[in-house]
Structures are given as C-alpha cells and as structure tokens.
Design goal:
This protein is α/β, with parallel strands linked by helices and 412 residues long. It has helices at residues 7-10, 33-42, 49-64, 74-88, 92-97, 120-123, 148-154, 174-183, 201-207, 234-244, 282-297, 300-318, 355-358, 362-371, 397-411, and strands at 16-18, 68-72, 107-111, 128-132, 159-164, 188-191, 212-216, 228-232, 324-329, 348-353, 375-377, 387-390. It binds pyridoxal-5'-phosphate.
Length: 412
C-alpha cells in the first residue's frame, strides 16, 4: 500500500525541493532519517505520555542546562504554554479559566523591537502584551531601545512575565532584562525558535538567566515538523506540562512522573488545559528525542562546512551567467554586543537578477520553479529588490545541481 518512493504522487501531490531552509509552508527541512525511523518504531506500542515526556525532559535538561523541559507542538505552542504557565503557576482554577483571565494578572511586557508575528501565541493563553521601550536606537538617538528604568517603571502587580526575541537588531541586552525582571520576581520568556543552530544556543539563554525558552524542533534540529520544546524553571515547566496533558484522572490512580510533576505541590488535579489542543503524540515525541540527540552529537563545523559547500555549488553553477550576481551570505559571526547570542547561522545564496539581461524576472523565476516536477520552492520575499534567496539546508548535491540546471534553462 505505502510506497516510500511514490507516496506523494500516489496522493496526487507533486513532490518538492525546499530551497528556503526552514520555511514551514514548504514543510520545513527534511526530518532526519533516524528520527523518521524512530517514529515508525514508536508506532508499535502504546505508552503513558507523561512518562515519555519525563524522559524527554531529562534529555532536554542534559542538553540545555535548564531544570526541566516539555516537548510541544512547535515553538508556537511552547510560547502559548509559557504564557499559560506564567499566568497560572500551580493554580488549577486559573488553568481552568485560561484564556479568560482579564481579571487575573495577565500582562506580558515586551520590547517594541521584539514584537513579531509569533508573539500572538502568548495571547492565545489570555495574556495581554504590553509594549515597552522604543525604537530610538535604530534612529541613532539612544544607545539602547530599552533602558533599565523604563522596564522597571512598567512592571506592576499585573505583570506575569517579560518576553524577549533575540535578533541582531534589537539593541536590548538580555542580561539587563533578566536583572530587572528578577529583581521584581518576574520571569523572562525567550522565543529562541529561530536560534538553532548553532547548538551552543541550547544553553546560551539559560546562562544569560532566562526562565522559559521556546525552541523549534522542526527547524535546525530537523526533528518532526510539528515539534518544539519549552525548557526552563521546573515549576513553570510543570505548569506547562499540566496544561498540555489530558487530565481525566482521579487522585488515587494519578501517579505523574516526579521529575516532571510534583503532585504534592498541587491543591488538586487540573483538568483539560489550553494546551490540550496541541498535544504531542508518542511518535512525534520519540522522533524529536532522536533528532535532538543527533543534533547535539553532530560536529558543528562539519555541519556548517557542508552547508557552505552546497551554497558555493549553487553560486559556482550560476557564476558565469550574464545578468546574475550570486553571493553566499554568512551572518553566523554576527554576535551583537548587546545580546551576545550568535544567530542566523544558516548560510544562504543571494541571487540578484538584472532582467534586462536575463530576459526573465524574479517573479517569473519563482513561478517557473514552482511548476517544475519536483517543484523548487523558494521564498517570494525580496522579489521587489530583484533578489531570490536560497537556503539549501537539507537538500542533496544532486538537488542543488537540479536547481542550477532549471534556472539556467530559463535564461538560455
Ligand atoms: C519559526 C519561528 C517560530 C515558530 O516556531 P514553530 O516551531 O514553527 O511553531 C516562532 N518564533 C520565531 C522567531 C520563529 O522563527
């Protein structure tokens, strides 16, 4: 019935090569083979999910230095659960009330320059996001976009967390943010979904004092597309776990794994929390565990060397074509002083097109790419500047060659 080689054709769907790196709508990078095999094997037996989550927590603890971890359906639900944990703590009544918590402390402070399309996930738990700071550094007016006193002044009794997104252009020190927040007993949530690789960032945010960090399992780690994890302080991860698990239990029979959930710390058993809608199945959990193990064992330099080789392969294949300017873009050594976090470690190929010479413009190329069989998927952003960007992350040398050949055939 199931044919490994033709499954998409059998379903009437054209297979594709994702040349846009981790992009979700292009189904992300390919899952590691070992992780896919592990998922297949995991399907052979039932388990108690919290026991499996506790094992994942142990692995996350070892690899990140955080106290505990929870596998989530992507970093997005990790953020919703982070907000839910900061709002509810151990209180089953608040867990039950989420997302209708306007009358409870529910405010998450977030620097304006960190606001991004994913921060709405925090709102999913009933949090209200309060913008703080400015963007005046970006205008060259101030040395930072958030002064410690600005943050201090915004923290009130309604504040449950401060949220942060590491980007090279935020010009806000995470260390400062953590210091002020902790002085006021407020936890700091970091969205690190886009920060892997490098693997060093698995522990970086905890070294800098973050309390809860959401990571993506389906991007740089190359685990199942639908996975991610939330790691951090034990009691907050416990709260997130309680709000994700399906809790139809009675006191006498409920024996949650002590590493993840301290039953004695609870006044009662919470029921279905906000995270019930994004449960993680055993196959995804197991696939994620294997992918994370391999990701941390891999040699970072070797991994990077392979990506660069593939980028150069595409660049060299197109270098003689009149009208194309092709460069390999590497931002991995940008470590802004104020955030001290290495980011954007995936190299990309930037192709600038002079359509008066090539006779075909960027829009047409992106469309032609998508009509191929297999399709070639590249982002349609950057088109306005006559640019096509490719991140050849989990593609083979043969596929890179195919991309080059296709592009050459449009120009000839
Ligand atoms: C990709 C991304 C997310 C979402 O991660 P998923 O695991 O796909 O849910 C959130 N925040 C940032 C900054 C991202 O890059």
């Amino acid at each position: 019935m199931v044919n490994d080689n033709t499954i998409y054709e059998d379903l009437g769907v054209k297979p594709a090569i994702n040349a846009a790196g981790t992009k979700t709508t292009f189904s992300g990078p390919l899952i590691r083979e070992e992780a896919a095999d592990a998922m297949r094997a995991a399907a052979n037996s039932s388990v108690q999910i919290d026991e499996l989550q506790a094992q994942a927590s142990e692995l996350i603890r070892e690899t990140t230095g955080a106290e505990a971890g929870l596998v989530t359906t992507g970093a997005s639900s990790g953020l919703t659960l982070a907000a839910a944990a900061c709002i509810a703590g151990n209180d089953p009544a608040i867990m039950q009330a989420i997302p209708n918590v306007e009358d409870e402390p529910n405010e998450i402070l977030m620097p304006r320059v960190c606001r991004n399309p994913y921060d709405r996930m925090l709102k999913g738990a009933g949090a209200e996001i309060i913008d703080i700071g400015s963007s005046s550094q970006n205008f060259g007016m101030t040395p930072t976009n958030l002064e410690p006193w600005e943050l201090e002044a915004e923290i009130t009794e309604d504040t449950v967390a401060v949220s942060y997104l590491p980007r090279p252009n935020t010009h806000i020190s995470l260390t400062m943010l953590v210091e002020v927040a902790h002085d006021n007993d407020v936890p700091v949530i970091v969205d690190a979904a886009g920060s892997l690789p490098p693997a060093e960032n698995l522990s970086r945010f905890f070294e800098l004092g973050a309390d809860l960090v959401a990571f993506c399992g389906g991007k740089g780690i190359r685990g199942p597309q639908t996975t991610g994890f939330l790691a951090g302080r034990r009691e907050l991860v416990q709260s997130a776990a309680l709000q994700q698990l399906d809790m139809g239990e009675i006191e006498e029979t409920w024996e949650p794994p002590a590493e993840l959930i301290d039953k004695d710390s609870l006044s009662g058993i919470p029921r279905n929390g906000i995270g019930r809608g994004f449960k993680v199945g055993k196959e995804e959990l197991v696939g994620f565990i294997y992918a994370l193990k391999i990701f941390v064992e891999e040699d970072e330099e070797k991994r990077r060397a392979e990506w660069f080789a593939r980028c150069r392969q595409i660049r060299d294949g197109l270098s003689e074509v009149p009208g194309l300017t092709v460069t390999v873009v590497d931002k991995s050594n940008d470590i802004p002083d104020d955030i001290k976090v290495r980011s954007d470690a995936l190299p990309s190929v930037r192709i600038t097109i002079d359509d008066s010479i090539t006779g075909i413009n960027t829009r047409a190329i992106v469309k032609r790419f998508r009509e191929e069989n297999p399709r070639i998927l590249v982002k349609s952003t950057g088109i306005a500047d006559n640019e096509i960007s490719m991140t050849p992350f989990s593609i083979s040398d043969e596929q890179a060659e195919y991309i080059v050949d296709c592009l050459l055939s449009y120009i000839d």
